Amino acid sequence: MEKLNFIVATKEIVDELFEFEKVCFENKPDQFSKRSLRHLIVSPTSRTIIIRNEKGKICAAAIGLLRHFKIPSGRIYKIGVLTEFARRGVGTALIEEIEKWFKNSGMKKTCAEVRESNTPSRRMFEKKGYVETKTLYYFYAGGENAAKYWKDL
Ligand SMILES: CC(C)(COP(=O)(O)OP(=O)(O)OC[C@H]1O[C@@H](n2cnc3c(N)ncnc32)[C@H](O)[C@@H]1OP(=O)(O)O)[C@@H](O)C(=O)NCCC(=O)NCCS
C-alpha cells in the first residue's frame, strides 16, 4: 500500500466532507448533516481523520469518539472509503490511526457498531482483532440490527 497522509479535519472542510458522505454511504440515515459533522470536527472528544487522493479530493474518512467512562473507551463512530480506493488497506490504516489517538488519549478499549448486512466492514474490523459481543436490535433507522464489536487496546 502507498504511504497515506492522514489529515485531521478542521471545520473549513465541512461542505467537502458532507459531499464525500453522500457518495460513500449508500444508506441515507448514515449520511450526517453538516451541523453534526461540524460538531464532530470541533468537539475535543471527537476526531475526524481524512485522506485525500492525488487530486486533493477526500477519498476516505473516519470519525472516532473518546468516552471517559469508568473504563475509558474509544468508539469508531464512522469509517468510509470510496469504492475506487477499496480493498487497498485504506480502511484498515484509518482504524490503526484512530486507535493510535485512542491509546494516546488514555483509552483502554475500542468499539464499533456495524450493520449486520455490512460484510466488508465486519470482516475489516474482525481482521483488526475486533470481537463481536452482541446484537443491537433495530439499531439503525429503518430497523436494521447492528453487530457490536469490542477490542482491548
Ligand atoms: C468497509 C470499508 C470501510 C472497507 O474499506 P477498505 O479500505 O476497502 O478496507 P481494507 O482494504 O482495509 O480491507 C480490510 C479487510 O476487510 C475485508 N473486506 C474489505 N472489503 C471487503 C469486501 N468487499 N468483501 C469482503 N471483505 C472485505 C477483507 O478482509 C479485507 O482484507 P483483505 O483485502 O486482505 O482480504 C469500505 O468498504 C467502505 O467504505 N464501505 C462503505 C461505507 C461503510 O460501509 N462503512 C462502514 C460503516 S461501519
Please sum up the structure shown.
By secondary structure, this protein is of the alpha+beta class.
Layout of strands and helices, then pairs:
Layout lengths: L6 E2 L5 H11 L9 H9 L3 E7 L5 E10 L5 E9 L8 H15 L4 E7 L3 H9 L3 E6 L9 E7 L1
This protein binds coenzyme A.
Characterise the protein shown here:
The chain has a domain at 7-108: Gcn5-related N-acetyltransferase (GNAT) (Aminopeptidase, 3-Layer(aba) Sandwich), CATH 3.40.630.30. 25% of the residues are buried. Strands 1-2-3-4-5-7-6 form a seven-stranded mixed beta sheet, sandwiched between helices. It has helices spanning 14-24, 34-42, 90-104, 119-127; strands at residues 7-8, 46-52, 58-67, 73-81, 109-115, 131-136, 146-152. By secondary structure, it is α+β, with helices and mostly antiparallel strands. β4 (73-81), α3 and β5 (109-115) form a beta-alpha-beta unit. The site of coenzyme A has 20 residues, from β4, α3 and α4. Residues 24-25, 79-81, 86-92, 114, 118-121, 123-124, 127 line the site of coenzyme A.
